[in-house]
Design a protein that fits this description.
Distance between the termini: 54 Å
Number of helices: 15
Largest sheet: 6 strands, parallel
CATH superfamily of the largest domain: P-loop containing nucleotide triphosphate hydrolases
CATH topology of the largest domain: Rossmann fold
Oligomer: single chain
CATH class of the largest domain: Alpha Beta
């Protein structure tokens, strides 16, 4: 992962052998322990011989964090004069000149003091990565650009400092630093996050229990989405992917037929997908030896139109073995929930040939099958 510490600083700076790797520690709110976790991992790497420096650290007066930082080398900050007030920022050029193997940069969403070379701290991080230096950084979920409006609705707080979503998408690794809302409230009351005089105000505003629960879910879901997208991209590129990674989120498949109540199946499936915030698909399997009547063709077109109205994707397949076709689509699309209608076959046909449901259950593993009853709701 790391370049040789003996490589030429000048050559690495001008034309790095590779772009640095970026690891982001993300959490639901201040105080979950992102910075401490980052420092802890960095210290372990230092013990293994990796050249680590702190590019920028914000302790916010937290004793444990400050003590952990003492074990690592810190690059001095630069002084910036703004309207007669002298403030400090990360000295990006000093980090580049120092050429460590790994730089720690806290609070990725921070806005630099006006007059700085770059507006945002994440832009400084991109410069460091481009120089071939690995970076560990931290950010809270509410700072993601795409979540800004949602976070404002949840908490009533408009977050001014934001980072583009692509930072998480492009990161080599994203770690969720997670604690329960109860633990975070306890830390807040103990004065481990903010000064004691700010505790009650924080508990009544941003740190309300319902806010923390919602933000925690957002953080966990965001990282799950990234993992799943990476897994699906690997699968589309022909890379062998663990199916478990592609089943982090639910995916609903409704199997429709020429029976009239297939429309009800689509509506029921769409509701299930809505409850689960899941992608939604409909599948119609054609019998290669049978031509649809005009009425049946119109019915299938109606099913397709309704599926798309619900934001779903309509899939058509041809196969003599309908259960096999459904199973293949389910595996290809990483389906986790299948909705089918009650079998319309006679009692004797079920005995002689078996039901579609039984065949599916034999072919599929780790997929829930919902059988929807009702006259005319059969699927195959």
């Amino acid at each position: 992962m790391y370049p040789s510490p003996n490589s030429s600083p000048d050559r690495t700076y001008i034309c790095p052998a590779r772009r640095g790797k970026h690891k982001i520690f993300i959490g639901m709110a201040p105080g979950v322990g992102k910075t401490f976790k980052m420092l802890e991992e960095a210290y372990q790497l230092k013990q293994c011989g990796v050249d680590v420096v702190i590019g920028l650290l914000e302790t916010h007066g937290r004793k444990e964090t400050a003590e952990k930082a003492e074990e690592l080398e810190m690059v001095p900050r630069q002084w910036v004069n703004h309207n007669g007030v002298v403030l400090t920022e990360m000295d990006t050029e000093a980090v580049l000149a120092r050429q460590p193997q790994l730089a720690l940069v806290d609070e990725l969403a921070h806005t630099n003091v006006p007059g700085s070379q770059r507006e945002k701290r994440y832009q400084d991080v991109e410069i460091i990565l481009a120089a071939g230096i690995d970076v560990y950084s931290t950010v809270n979920i509410q700072h993601l650009e795409s979540l800004n409006d949602l976070v404002a609705r949840i908490t009533g707080v408009v977050v001014r400092e934001r980072v583009p979503d692509r930072l998480l998408e492009e990161a080599d690794e994203v770690i969720v630093v997670d604690v329960t809302p109860e633990t975070l409230e306890e830390r807040l009351r103990d004065g481990k996050i903010y000064a004691m005089e700010k505790v009650e105000q924080s508990l009544q505003n941003f740190f309300q229990r319902r806010n923390l629960i919602a933000l925690r879910e957002l953080a966990l879901r965001e990282v799950a989405d990234n993992i799943e997208e990476d897994a699906l991209e690997e699968a589309s590129n022909g890379t062998k992917t663990d199916p478990l990674f592609c089943s982090i989120h639910e995916r609903v498949l409704v199997c429709v037929s020429t029976y009239p109540n297939a429309i009800q199946l689509i509506r029921r499936g769409a509701r299930i997908a809505g409850y689960m915030h899941a992608p939604f698909y409909c599948l119609f399997v054609d019998d290669p030896d049978r031509f649809l009547t005009k009425a049946e063709s119109l019915h299938v077109e109606t099913c397709e139109r309704l599926c798309k109205e619900f934001g779903g994707e309509f899939i058509r397949a041809k196969d003599y073995d309908k259960a096999k076709a459904i199973a293949e689509v389910a595996r290809s699309y990483y389906i986790t929930q299948i909705v089918i209608g009650e079998s319309q076959r006679s009692h004797w046909k079920l005995i002689l040939r078996g039901s579609l449901t039984h065949k599916l259950l034999r072919l599929l593993k780790n997929i829930d099958v919902h059988i929807i009853g009702g006259k005319g709701s059969g699927v195959m």
